[in-house]
Amino acid sequence: MGIYLVWWRSTHATTGPLPPPAIWSSDSSPFAPWTSPRRRRAVDLPVREPPVTTTVALPGAKVEEETKQKRADEYRLVLFNDPLNKREYVARCLMTICLLKEGDAYQVMMKAHKEGVAVVGTYAFETAEAYCESLKAQGLSVDIFPVDKDD
User: Distance of alpha carbon 124 from its chain centroid, rounded?
Assistant: First the structure.
């Protein structure tokens, strides 16, 4: 086979590079004696059509609309008095989790201690929820409430 390959190269050698593949026809290639042209055919696959959603209004029928309940823009994080945890621990949790300054954390803790409840702050829902869950994980009694527009 090696001798045949040398003979083929010597008889079929070109002086320059092979022409670019774009000008080769699909039936011929520079390697035509050894390979048959391979044609790829696209197979029509079934396509899933999207479901048709047509609303038909019947005379005398009531139309029900789906209403989505909108979340409030801001939420209050509320701390309740906790007789189990020390006051210093509560203030330290407020400083580390809610990023309150030492004086603010102390004031919130003291208000919850004396009055039974204190507002830690007003936050967006995701932030208030994250702070609430983190403080609950530390053993504190906290909750979040939506802020009314007229407050």
Answer: 19
- Whether 67 is in a domain gets the answer no
Length reported for the chain: 151
**Amino acid letter, 95:** M
For residue 104, what is the domain's CATH number?
Answer: 3.30.1390.10
Distance CA(49)–CA(59), nearest Å, equals: 30
Sorted by sequence, the CB contacts under 8 Å of residue 118 that are 6+ apart come out as: 78, 79, 108, 109, 111, 112
What string of DSSP letters covers 73-131? S-EEEEEE--SSS-HHHHHHHHHHHS---HHHHHHHHHHHHHHSEEEEEEE-HHHHHHH
pLDDT exceeds cutoff 70 at 49: yes
DSSP at 24: S
pTM of the model: 0.54
How far is the C-alpha of 122 from the C-alpha of 128, rounded, in Å? 8
